[in-house]
Design brief:
about 150 residues; about 75% helix; about 5% strand
């Protein structure tokens, strides 16, 4: 392992700290906050304490927020585990960068007309990219376990 790729250690601890994943996660947390604020804003404007008030914009905002909450935690946890296990920093950046792009794209597609170009590129593309990262992490972890790495 090259010096630039060596895992940083938490102070007073021998466990490597996933500093690359943590940086991306902090940015993703800000995106999550923006998605939540958008839901609250739309709920207030439609006076909808529960549900979506049969409003397509509120429904899209709720789903964009929920999809983020469904996929980002487990994917980020797997990337952090891979980073702590010593995979190359470039792979961590690739995985987290792809997750970041996918999670930015997906909400942009939620507001597009179904099956329009914007919908296909952003919503469907964002979802596929999320799934590719999720499966890639899972397979990499399983292979590392299989090979005892």
């Amino acid at each position: 392992m090259r010096a630039a790729e060596s895992p940083r250690r938490a102070q007073g601890n021998n466990m490597p700290w996933p500093h690359i994943t943590a940086g991306y996660l902090a940015v993703l947390a800000l995106i999550y906050t923006a998605l939540a604020v958008n839901v609250v804003r739309l709920r207030n404007s439609h006076r909808a304490a529960f549900g979506d008030a049969d409003d397509p914009a509120l429904r899209s905002a709720i789903r964009a927020h929920a999809h983020f909450a469904e996929y980002v935690p487990v994917t980020t946890l797997m990337v952090a585990m891979l980073e702590m296990s010593g995979i190359a920093a470039s792979r961590v950046h690739l995985l987290m960068g792809a997750l970041f792009v996918s999670r930015l794209a997906y909400p942009a597609g939620m507001y597009a007309r179904p099956m329009s170009l914007q919908f296909r590129i952003f919503r469907i593309g964002g979802m596929w990219l999320t799934m590719i990262v999720l499966v890639s992490c899972a397979v990499t972890i399983l292979l590392r376990l299989w090979h005892g790495a």
